[in-house]
Amino acid sequence: MSSPQELVPQTESIAEVYATDDVSANSVAPQHQQRFSGLISQFNKEYNHRPDFVARSPGRVNIIGEHIDYSLYDVLPTAVSVDVIMAVKIVPATSVTTIKIANVAPEKFPKREFSFPHDAEIEIDPKKHEWVNYFKAGLSGALKFLRKEKKGVIPASMEILVDGNVPPGGGISSSAAFVCASALAVMKANDHNVSKQDLLDLAVVSERAVGVYSGGMDQAASIFSKRGFLLYTQFYPTFKAQHVPIPKAADEITFLMAQSFVTSNKADTAPRHYNLRVAECTLAAVILAKNFGLTLPKDNSSLGYSLRNFQNELMTVEERLHDPLEYQIDSVIQAVQDLFTKTEGYTREEMAALLDITVPELESKFLSAFPVQAERFRLRQRALHCFKEARRVLDFKACLAKASELDTKRIHYLGQLLNESQASCRDDYECSAPEVDEICEIARKAGTWGSRLTGAGWGGCTVHMLPQGKVEAVTTALRDEYYLKHFPDITAEKLEQAMVISKPSNGSFVVYGA
Ligand code: NG1
Ligand code: MG
């Protein structure tokens, strides 16, 4: 028998641990103990007293299910051990609320202070790239929540010191770690014992305030993950998650993350990359629906109409009840192939005609919530990627669930799914980068079972599944054939950060008594 895949208790509060306990045994990885005590002593220097608590939220690695969370399909990420830790002192508010926020790396992230009237909205200018925007995003979401719970709430003033070691723009979601830690810190500072589900809901919406129409995968992984498990995350019809164990294998299964050091700054590139993909998937969904004479009910995806929603509406009640999801996905793949025959993509005029609306109507409905720049929308390729990737996630999870021990055949199958995901991201979704493809090639040749990009792509990070016994060979190959070749002057320190064995780690928690 396989080990059970546990349902995640969503209403459970965020864990609180005490610094006098062995923090490492609870959650902080031993190598980060030092960072943790460093944060406390630096806080002391900065503000002349100790903090009341430390809020923490980690980055994540997505094992499989790329760019399908915003189409409301299931994904399989987990938290990693790099994280954002935030020491906080609660200060009673005066006639206004004042936030003082500093970072342990002040050269890169200068100190900031701002005040606002107790009932004011927090203003964020997504065009101005400021590290505190991510804090403000969490603050704004948390305040909206608190005000709904309690009218006339007076938000506490806070003194904050932040230490984050998740590489930014690196595909392991430094942004979600930061936004989740910030929202958690504000909730705690205002004495609200937030549940994991509430923190997730408000963090997803918070992050959209920074200008990216993200799905909910990163925040879910950052908040809900459990050490040693992957987090099977479902978004449709509503959020649900399961802790999925990784079975034993004769040759221990290891996940390695390798940075490409090609950064794609989402705030700049979103109109041509990320947000454009969200728009393409949404348009594919509504055009498919129109073609089948279906009216889609609004769902909770960022633009309100997802491919998953279309799939659900296309199936009869009978089929929904009795057909396995995999089979249902086969029929929608067929529908995409039949309808979207223009491989070069669709213009706004062509899409408006398919929907029987005018171009200005199309733009105001689907292309105005956030900026999108494109002449053509490659609906066929994007929808095919989404549905096939969704099926790969189901196949991956089913394979993990089948046995408590994985034999060679199964392991190779899992690797193959990862490689197919990469090929689809490269060819159909066009979210890879030449450097990412190169890393995957080198790694596979040196002995990984499967290699792919993880996160939004267009650079960023890669993830590899490999036997423990091959770690040395793969990291050596990547060092010699990728890092030293592309970055001959790379420092030893940067090289060390480039490749990290990723151990599935715990999600958000708060530390008291530090
Ligand atoms: P990154 O760029 O790694 O944070 C983004 C989205 C996810 C998901 C992945 C692609 C944000 C905050 N996150 O991840 O929701 O869509 O891309 O699978 O934009
Ligand atoms: Mg991000």
Give a written overview of the molecule.
With 514 residues, the protein is an alpha+beta fold. 43% of the residues lie in helices and 19% in strands. The protein is built from 18 helices and 16 strands. Helix 3 (132-149) crosses helix 5 (196-208). The model has no long low-confidence stretch (mean pLDDT 92). The structure holds 2-acetamido-2-deoxy-1-O-phosphono-alpha-D-galactopyranose and magnesium ion (MG). Magnesium ion (MG) binds at residues 173, 175-176, 218.
Q: Could you give a short description of this structure?
A:
The chain has 514 residues and is an alpha+beta fold. Helix content is 43%, strand content 19%.
- Number-wise, the strands total 16
Beta-strand content estimate = 15-25%
Approximate shape? globular
Count of runs of 4 or more consecutive helical residues: 18
Specify the helix fraction band: 40-55%
Structural class: alpha+beta
Query: How many angstroms does the end-to-end distance come to?
Result: 42 Å
Low confidence ranges: none
Q: Any idea what the radius of gyration is?
A: 23 Å
Characterize the largest beta sheet: strand count, sense, and whether it forms a barrel: 7 strands, mixed
Strand order of the largest sheet: 2-16-3-4-7-5-6
Q: Which ligands, by name, code or SMILES, are bound?
A: 2-acetamido-2-deoxy-1-O-phosphono-alpha-D-galactopyranose, magnesium ion
- What does the average pLDDT come to? 92
Domain Galactokinase N-terminal: 42-89
Protein name: Galactokinase
GO molecular function, one term: galactokinase activity
Domain GHMP kinase N-terminal: 141-225
